[in-house]
Write a structure and sequence with these properties.
Order of helices and strands: HEHEEHEEHEEHEHHEEH
Subcellular location: Cell membrane
Radius of gyration: 17 Å
Shape: globular
Distance between the termini: 34 Å
CATH class: Alpha Beta
Number of helices: 8
GO molecular function, one term: transferase activity
Family: Belongs to the glycosyltransferase 2 family. CrtQ subfamily.
Oligomer: single chain
Number of strands: 10
Number of domains: 1
Strand content: 15-25%
CATH architecture: Alpha-Beta Complex
CATH topology: Spore Coat Polysaccharide Biosynthesis Protein SpsA, Chain A
Low-confidence stretches: 235-239
Pfam families: Glycos_transf_2
Structural class: alpha/beta
Pathway: Carotenoid biosynthesis; staphyloxanthin biosynthesis; staphyloxanthin from farnesyl diphosphate: step 4/5
Length: about 240
């Protein structure tokens, strides 16, 4: 992370509103848990939190899950990047607004948004967080050990080396400055973070509020987390 100075913190106004976007494709069995976790994280804040669910080409009962107070956007693009982008496009991208995103198969911790806003008030433009596994039921007995070893091996001084759409936050003005999430079917999170780095935004590579995410073998996005798990865990000699 680029050094956060006192001047940088003073240059940025405090966050006065939060927007959380969750892209969904046929996630009726997961979405309620994700929304409950986000609601718990929002409850500890003293600023308003808007939650937007983006239903992307859903053919199941996902549309019946969001309750009152949840914004719902429907698209038919089969693109997680376009879905995240559509959700944030509905909201003002101001300097005092924090944009955060997670996934329907993920469960954010109660201190997730509090941690993001604490870092934002310290002067960062974006938070790139980590994930932990919800379970390893679909994998070999050694899957957790293999994954943890690979995850730690990628860490470098000052940054953990991972980008997950399940755990990203960015100041609205910085998001708008770099053009937001690209409308791609995968790696939209990686592209956004690269754009923020190229724009010399201050990024916190944070490990303090990891998001618990699904370890399902078949993911919703090509080249997504499920594919990465398969590459790591199913290598010969690792199971």
């Amino acid at each position: 992370m680029r050094e956060v100075t006192a001047d940088a913190a003073r240059d940025r106004p405090p966050i006065r509103a939060v927007t959380v976007v969750i892209p969904v494709h046929d996630e009726a069995d997961e979405l309620a848990g994700a929304l409950d976790a986000v609601a718990d994280a929002a409850a500890v804040l003293d600023v308003p939190v808007r939650v937007t669910v983006v239903l992307d080409a859903c053919t199941d009962a996902s549309a019946s899950i969001p309750g009152p107070g949840i914004d719902v956007v429907a698209v038919d693009v089969r693109s997680v990047g376009a879905a995240r982008r559509s959700g944030f496009a509905c909201h003002h991208a101001g300097d005092d607004v924090w944009f955060a995103t997670t996934d329907a198969d993920s469960r954010v911790p109660r201190d997730w948004l509090h941690r993001h806003l604490w870092l934002a008030d310290a002067g960062v433009d974006a938070v790139v967080g980590t994930v932990v596994a919800r379970d390893w039921a679909q994998w070999s007995v050694d899957a957790g050990r293999v994954f943890d070893a690979d995850y730690r091996a990628r860490q470098r001084r000052g940054r953990h080396g991972h980008v997950h759409g399940a755990n990203i936050g960015v100041r609205g003005s910085a998001y708008a400055r770099v053009g937001g999430f690209p409308a791609t079917r995968s790696d939209e999170d990686v592209a956004l973070v690269a754009a923020l780095e190229n724009a010399r935004c201050t990024i916190a590579w944070d490990t303090e509020a990891p998001v618990a995410t699904s370890t399902r073998r078949v993911g919703r996005a090509p080249a997504g987390f499920a594919g990465a798990l398969a590459e790591i865990i199913d290598l010969p000699g690792t199971a």
